[in-house]
Specification:
The chain has one domain. About 0% of the residues lie in helices and about 40% in strands. The chain contains no helices and nine strands. A five-stranded mixed sheet has the order 3-4-1-6-7, with no helix packed on it. A four-stranded mixed sheet has the order 5-2-9-8, with no helix packed on it. Strand 8 and strand 9 form a beta hairpin. The chain is globular and about 40 Å long.
Length: about 120
């Protein structure tokens, strides 16, 4: 059953590519909390498995450098296929069932060809 807690996604600085978070995986570790928000630390592989439920609450995205400093990643409400952003943003967030997927980059035109669809 989905949770209504907010989510904080923290990605490595300069990360670009697809992120897939698979929830409700038996035997996987539960997500920690940062305040009242589920904390999802995304490794450089872009893949996370957790026993925690998918959260349907608000979400925030951050890039974190080796100095632990965080920079907010925007999630534009509107983005056209030909739009290129000045800095990486979160595009195409989609959560259904027990998985959440999204792309981090400057936009489809600036993304590598394999970024047009998420990996299976």
């Amino acid at each position: 059953m989905p949770s209504e807690s907010p989510s904080v996604y923290v990605l490595p600085a300069r990360f670009t590519g697809w992120v897939t978070v698979t929830f409700e995986v038996a035997g996987a570790p539960a997500l920690p909390f940062e305040g009242d928000a589920q904390l999802v630390r995304v490794p450089s592989s872009g893949k996370v498995s957790t026993s925690s439920p998918l959260s349907t609450g608000t979400r925030r995205f951050w890039a974190e450098g080796s100095d632990w400093q965080r920079t907010a990643l925007d999630e534009p409400t509107e983005s056209t296929p030909e739009q290129v952003h000045e800095r990486p943003v979160v595009l195409g967030y989609n959560a259904e069932g027990t998985a959440a997927r999204f792309y981090v980059g400057v936009g489809p035109a600036g993304a590598p060809p394999e970024a047009s669809t998420p990996p299976s």
